[in-house]
Design brief:
The chain is of the alpha+beta class. It has eleven helices and nine strands.
């Protein structure tokens, strides 16, 4: 779906600025840590205090995450994270994506030898042209048509999953359709709709950013929420905070760099 590189070498960041906040996501992610160390937060950061899990492996598989997550680096870090559609990960690894929900695992513990060797080659080569090298290494492992996604919105993907399941379920029951969606994505169609609505609200918030305060009631209605309170609860579920608090941190908090990067892509594609 997308690749994101983060390099803080040569940057002067304090402890809080070395936090990295991420939303819940239906995508699976493979991450490489080329230099430095990353730890997932256990629980929420309280002021400048937070509990850390063990250091992540150099190559990590993160399954779809049903809640927001955060990581922290004790010093400079250079890493690459590649989000992949869950049905693609299922085909590459040969296991149900549901097995990886809300987990961060060493890739070598779950990947077939060929996939792990392809990802290990990226780590061994260092960060130079890492994404291009990954594409080259992984292409021989892929059997089937390639469907590029020049504007990879989650909503477009969820609708394509529903359409493909419908065509695969002609003459079959709704239960069979629901099983197909869960088998491909690890989650129910109802669960996936949460991401499409929150994404739509985010897109409308970014598109309407002209320096004035956003009309949250209008955004809620346009994004398909029952009302503004419903939107607030759903956004909190994905980001861990209210729409107002999220907007404040998006504007100036260094640890929200990921959200600003996505916002920049949204502005680019309009």
């Amino acid at each position: 779906m997308a690749g994101i590189e983060r390099d803080t070498r040569g940057c002067s960041l304090d402890d809080l600025e070395r936090l990295n906040y991420y939303p819940a996501t239906p995508m699976a992610v493979i991450s490489w840590v080329f230099e430095g160390t990353l730890h997932m937060l256990e629980g929420e950061a309280q002021e400048n205090r937070f509990a850390l899990g063990p250091a992540l492996p150099r190559i990590t598989l993160s399954g779809p995450q049903r809640g927001p997550a955060a990581s922290w680096s004790p010093g400079p870090v250079h890493a690459l994270s590649v989000g992949m559609y869950p049905e693609a990960v299922k085909r590459l690894i040969g296991q149900p994506v549901e097995n990886f929900l809300d987990r961060h695992l060493p890739l070598e513990a779950v990947a077939p030898t060929a996939l792990f060797q392809a990802c290990q080659a990226v780590l061994a080569a260092g960060a130079a042209d890492a994404f291009a090298l990954l594409e080259k290494e992984i292409q021989p492992l892929w059997k089937g048509p390639l469907r590029p996604s020049p504007v990879p919105y989650i909503g477009d993907w969820v609708r394509s999953v529903a359409t493909r399941a419908t065509h695969s379920s002609a003459g079959r029951s709704l239960r069979h359709w629901q099983r197909l969606v869960r088998d491909w994505t690890g989650q129910s169609y109802r669960d996936l709709q949460l991401f499409t609505r929150v994404e739509e609200a985010f897109i409308r918030r970014i598109a309407g950013g002209n320096g004035s305060s956003p009309n949250l009631a209008d955004i809620a209605a346009d994004a398909g929420f029952a009302d503004q309170s419903h939107m607030g609860r759903q956004i909190r579920k994905v980001t861990g905070m209210s729409p107002a608090r999220f907007g404040e941190r998006l504007a100036s908090d260094e640890s929200f760099w990921y959200y600003r990067l996505i916002a920049g892509e949204i502005r680019q594609y309009g």
